[in-house]
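Section 3.1 - Work completed
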Amino acid sequence: MSQKPLKDRLPKFKGLETFEERSKKFFKKVGESFDTFVSDIFDSAKYTLFPKLKNMMNIGTDSSSAQPLAIFWDYDNFPLLKNEDLDFFYDQIIPDEKAYNILVKKVFSLKEQIDRRREFLEKKGFEIIEVPHTGKKNETDLEIFTQCIDFCNASKEPTSILLITGDRDFVFLTRRIIESGHDVSLICSDKSKLSAELRKRVPKVVDRNDLFKPKNYLKYSLEYEKDPDIWKNKWQELKSFYSKEKDQYRLLRYIYHRNEDIAIRNIILQELEELA
């Protein structure tokens, strides 16, 4: 027995029929079936232009094939800044827990440094490791080294280790991780300041500045914005970063999939029709 098209298997929401009719009319005009479009946008990896960590670092593609993942965050050297959107930051650096097997998610810091963001970090499921301030140098670094190496030695299968830090002195730790048979990735504050040995040893590095480029934040905000006027203004600003219409078209399709507001989706359809 043939399976019904995806659109017929989706739950019916108020206003969906009118929206669907309009969508069908549009896609008939540009020569693409509505069913094909719906199937395509659910394959988000195909159209994602947004540099999420799981795509940039190629940690995995689905829950059945992805390696286990362990996250060690050096908060003292890589804190969340006041002007940074917390959910945006988390969405970029932390892979989807439903798609990836995250075994460890720890953030290390001196107590007074992390208290400002404690509620947010705990809500996101981090285990907060408060490092006692004894006056010695590199107290947090030593704690991360110890716990990360202990984890690597105890792990029975190859694991992707993600280090989040602004510290340049992680050459020894990355060497031990690799020697233990694990893969290591790094998010740093400034990639240009990393030592040559560390850059050579860890090819998968993401710079904090790349995560917070204006166009990246605009993409993120368009995925959730519900005010039509604000959305239009932000889209005009974002378009200036993409000179090719095919890139604008693909980006709009991706945002269409992410933003569930009917009014915004209608605006996106208008934009797509102009680009078609």
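Second construct:
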Amino acid sequence: MRRNRYANHHKYSGYLALASNAEFFLSLYGEFGRAYLLFEFHRFGQSLGRDERLTSVDPRRRHTLFSETEESELCAQALVNYYQNRGFPSEAEKIEGLNYREGIFCSRGLRALVSKLVEVIEEKRKKGYEVLINATGGFKAESAYALLVGMLFRVPVYYIHEVFQNVVEMPVVPVSWDYSFLAEYEEFFHFLHADLRTKDEVREVLPTIPTEVRSLLTEEERYIFLSPAGEAFFQAYLNRIEEEKIPIFFSRTAWEAFRSFDSTVQENFRRILRKLRLPEVRRNRARSIRIEDVSCFVYPDKKRDERVFFCEREGNLYVCALGRHSDQSYERLITKGVRCWKQKDFTPFES
């Protein structure tokens, strides 16, 4: 962690100091008493008016997410009014379920918070904004999940404790997350994410799900759904797939096979190819085949009907063949032999 360059300011002047470093400022603001809040904003205004470094910045945008409590709504509205009156575009949204009911808070509220954080981050990035997260306010669990989202989506997170005199920055972690295990169970995550699922609906599937994946699930009454952490990792995984843009080329043989399939099977292959955009999937989940006349990689490796034979050269993905177990085409390809490097006439494929 490193100090912000405005670290000499108290917390009430620190909010705008942070905002001056970015185009978009996403904040959580929480449980303060009315008198304390008004006192802080009085001091905030005095400090703001005296500091040219804070008043000379261009207007930025602020998006405040607040808990489903009276105190948080008061704080959020005060923030919006304060910034709007000074020319800073601001808005606030209530997160349903972030209240004092423990069961709802843990299962629904935190999950809703994660979903909204991801939604706002992606929306503003598409518009060209740089995003920062101020995780100071709210319940402690809210700050923890805001930090997790910041780490997964590479967004700097800031924090100010009421007794600190400094703004603490938790910068983007310079590591890459391995999402290949999520790719293996993407369809299951989509199934859970699409709607509320009862235990009966997932009872047969759960025994086949490894422990590390089940750790991202939670239960409430008779339902099973993604935990707040599961929501964060799944959304980050989908974001990574959209970011990776490796060019994909099909051989003539692959095109002929693809066009012979019905629309459902074609979509299954498209889903596999989207997963293959991730380097960790190609590196950790694809199987190298080097037997007789077969020299390439195949993915997925097991428990799937559809298989993609591919190789990677000069930053491009070359698909030399497509096979299925259900029609024995996979077995015929293995018997006949597949050598990607001998194939010619590759043309671009848009997955």
